[in-house]
């Protein structure tokens, strides 16, 4: 049986990992919430307003960061009290969350300096680090023995962060295109490719990798993109803006429904497998 909360004491690697998580999260929060241009550049809000892209969501969509940081704050505290042999922390999270926090800290610096291509690549580092965590938590054994805390603080929170940074990475490449003077038609091509990638990522993680929150974070962004097509209308005309608006909305609604159905099926299967496992244990004890 894989009990993720048994055992006390702690190996050196586990202790290093736990405290690295704390320090990396503190650094990330310090640079994220203390970012006001760092004295040599513009704030992230100013840059976002100056370089509007075809797929820039409205301001309300970015409120998702509040949920992400709140969940990860709880995770940071929770993981300090888990045993050194906790399977989720050791084999799933590992040092990949430290990696994500360090990349995100670096992103705050590169975007303030308006190094748009570099900041997009750094954002890709965040997205990849979190995607690895999301991919490593999907095996059947993890599903069956996952506690409620592990679901919300690892699978859900890192899925939410991973899905949103997937969108943010592609948004950054669009921002780089605008900042470097790419033509409106060129911007449209970059935007269409970006939307195709995020839709594919949403379907992959939501339907095939048991990560509802990864998919929902992307759908949240798609709802936002659908509601904010003023820039597209200005540079490419209302017809194209309307096509993007409708396409984004249809994708967001369809993927939300599909992934919710997949999650319902997954949870039912996990409960069924767990019940069968318990029955087998009882029958083996009675025989």
From TrEMBL:
Give the transmembrane region(s): 60-81, 88-107, 113-135, 156-176, 188-205
Alphabetized, the UniProt keywords read: Membrane, Transmembrane, Transmembrane helix
Q: Please, which domain of life does this record's source organism belong to? A: Eukaryota
PANTHER family, per the entry:
SI:CH211-161H7.5-RELATED, XK-RELATED PROTEIN
Q: What is this protein called?
A: Uncharacterized protein
Q: Which organism is it from?
A: Heterosigma akashiwo
